[in-house]
Design a protein that fits this description.
The protein is mostly helical. It has 15 helices and no strands.
Length: 309
């Protein structure tokens, strides 16, 4: 197996576990506590990555204005995404929450319109409608007559997570500093915001050994390590081919949900996921230039970014 596919496969394997492991952790921790501890462990991991790769010195070259921009971007892409997703997981089935959250690739198309000045075409509009039909199927569990019984707050929380991630992905394209340094700052901001909210709202929980196991899995593996291996895959492999593998993540997630949560996977989840990803395919088939925006959540290849600072 080529090294780049091994790296990409590890990323997808860890990303797919997010919904199931987070749901298990939320049995004993609040959403904000989970955000804080995930931010803490990811920050420590990325600090070590930057330390051992000699990148920490690059922090000194970042201006205060750029620090502020990167911190705000981290709050949108890490803090808000995690918090809204956890809120959705607390109110919906794990499969519903994670599939709805996977609207982010098609929402990148929507937010690229005002933020990057990209043209909104009929094909893109159709793609959006197809994906949102998928959300309606998942939210109603296939029974549109029962939409009134759907937990609207939970659905909106997951859509908010997807919107936050899409906005982050669009704005992250303009970031020119080293990707590993940027990710460290993103998680530092998330950790700081999570700590602040915890101090205001509730006591900082002391974790048990099993809780630390879950936190280390989420913070180190699904956040720090998964994005590191994805970056390595993007840098050494064919970005266009590898990026399509990211769309396997929700299917892997359903396996974790079934095995770890013993949550039966409904036909409506498969149908909704089909429509959501169909919208992505419709959009990508008509506009290859936007492919690079949707394919890599945090990192782009060295060629795309024009090298590292």
């Amino acid at each position: 197996m080529k090294k780049e596919y091994l790296f990409a496969g590890l990323s997808i394997l860890f990303w797919g576990s997010t919904a199931a492991v987070s749901s298990l952790m939320m049995d004993s921790l609040s959403s904000m506590a989970l955000v804080f501890y995930n931010g803490l462990t990811a920050t420590v991991f990325l600090f070590l990555v930057n330390l051992f790769t000699g990148r920490l010195k690059l922090l000194r070259s970042i201006s205060p204005k750029e620090w502020l921009k990167l911190s705000l971007l981290g709050l949108v892409g890490m803090f808000c995404v995690s918090f809204f997703l956890y809120c959705g997981l607390a109110r919906l089935k794990a499969q519903q929450a994670y599939i709805i959250n996977y609207l982010w690739p098609i929402l990148i198309v929507l937010f690229s319109w005002p933020l990057l000045g990209q043209k909104m075409t009929n094909r893109k509009a159709i793609a959006l409608l197809v994906s949102f039909l998928g959300v309606a199927i998942v939210a109603s569990e296939g029974d549109f007559s029962g939409l009134g019984q759907t937990d609207l707050v939970g659905v909106l929380a997951c859509v908010a997570a997807a919107c936050s991630y899409a906005i982050f992905s669009v704005l992250n394209i303009k970031v020119t500093c080293d990707k590993f340094v940027a990710m460290l700052i993103y998680y530092m901001a998330t950790m700081a915001a999570g700590l602040l909210f915890l101090l205001i709202r509730e006591p900082i929980p002391v974790l048990t050994v099993p809780q630390w196991g879950g936190i280390l899995w989420l913070g180190v593996l699904t956040n720090g390590l998964a994005y590191t291996t994805w970056a390595l895959a993007m840098d050494i492999g064919d970005t266009a081919k590898l990026s399509n593998l990211a769309y396997l993540t929700p299917f892997v997630s359903l396996i974790y949900i079934y095995v770890l949560l013993h949550e039966p996977i409904t036909w409506s989840s498969y149908a909704g996921l089909f429509f959501i990803l169909s919208g992505v395919v419709i959009q990508l088939s008509g506009d290859r230039s936007s492919h690079s925006h949707a394919r890599s959540p945090h990192f782009h290849s060295r060629q795309e970014r024009g090298g590292n600072i």
